[in-house]
Amino acid sequence: MVYTKKNPALFIIGVIMLAIWFMADAGMLSGYIDHLGGKKYKYAGELGSIPLYFGVIAAVIGLWQWFGSHKEGHWDFYSSTIAGAMFILLIAMLVRWFVAPEVAVVSKMMGKVGDTGKYIHKLLGLNYVVLGIVAGIVIVNFFKVPDWAKNGVRVSRLGLKTGVILLGTLYSAAELKNLGGLSIIMIGFFVLGSVGMTLWLGARRGIPNSMGGVLSAGMGVCGVSATVASAPVVQAKSVEIAYTIGTILLWGVGCMFIFPIVGNLLDMSYLKFGAWAGTGILNSAQVAGAALAYQPDGIETLKVAEIFNITRVLVLPIIVMWLAVWYVKREQTGTKVSVGQVIFEKFPVFVLGFILLFALSTTGMFAPANHYKGKYFDNSKVSAKKMMSDADIAELQANADKVQRADQKAALERLIAGRKVASIDDDATIRGLANSKVMGKKSGKILKKAHKAVRHTAKKIKAFRQWITWLFAFGLVGLGMQITVSSMKQAGGQPAVIGGIVGFTKAVLSLLVVMLIVKDTI
Amino acid sequence: MSENNFDRGSALSIFGSDRREDFMALAFALIIAFGVYFTY
Question: Of A4, A24, A442, A454, which residue is the least packed, with the fewest Cβ within 10 Å?
């Protein structure tokens, strides 16, 4: 069988990509880009390069597919995926560069939500990830995936796996030293507990093992990465992955509003609330939203919540291994299953890849070893231009009396004396002081500038983030293209019910643990 | 998409086995990692 279709589709996709590049390069899109944020529009750099490179590739291969002769064989099979892959990539480009920013513009016009300090598109997670899945679902259900693109849709999972492996570069074991014993124990207990409870409930309520498996990782660990990483191990269908992501996001939105209310009713300390939000809420953006809603004038709560959040990602390989063994045991009832053999035969190599790149990142190969997602503190690299000016110092000195907290006063004194932030601890304190706005708007801006001067982003990690973003965008648009309305009906409403029960139990139990165990230190 | 419609791979993948897909993903990731390492 010859898989390559002799039609102009891939060539046309290449021409569209080149047209996008040309219009951006010639300034024909500048009016629209101004509407999408002007100088704040983040994708101008991407528009000037990515559509050009991929446009040329697609146009050249497209001409060959259209006019060339094709013979049966491996080359024909694998090269036939290019048309579909480029089709997905084009949709991902449109979603990332135009649709997601347009949604953000509309969301910003609606104003911030309550005390969360965030816009609704941030809180609902309406970014390129979710909108990419939605775009894929719309295409497959309203227009059908064309025949020439079908093979390409089947490489989307390969893109997701590659993205998960590269995710390892964003973290470093050096972060572990920032994690206290309690955060590890609490997260370990609640992650494993949530996974176990979801699997048990899933079995009782009769959902497929693949659905239970992927939902358990989503409910236990957090967000899209965990769901994507665990999906191949339990042979999850696209619709099950989408359901899991939807359940997590919806549950998180509810928590984000309820957690601060409960926290205020119980008069919880920043530390207790941060620990609770970091354990009980599943999605990183929503954890941040709840923490900021609870403490709009500082970042102590947010820092604690972030520490708990990081711990969850590090548990991911353990969960994947557990699910691999669990799934094989469930699917092969009646036959004796050797755990060692299952791990050897079924353990996903791509998760080992994640661990490998995590280990390489820890060595400092890509960024200083103490980085987190590529960002690191280093006050020895502050250029003379970024040191505080005499005018800045005079402004801070004039407002120094307004600062009441002893730690903030001390950090401010050291900042004024040294003209730059003195240490990583001072950096956190100064950031909190800037957020609290007690020194006024102008001083706040100076403090934020001082904070930015000592924070650096590693170029390599920035490049990795770019790759991960595109691989996930590509993979999730393709995943959306595999979700039909009938498959959604088949999956039913059980995932949301199970997710709700597990999420509620976790929120209540973690609240009890936090109130009983957490004192003033972690 | 039904699994039976594909004489190579499955509805979710063009590869015959998950492990082969994993190794391909690992190969791509390492190529990207080394590319980034030597470029930036």
Answer: A442
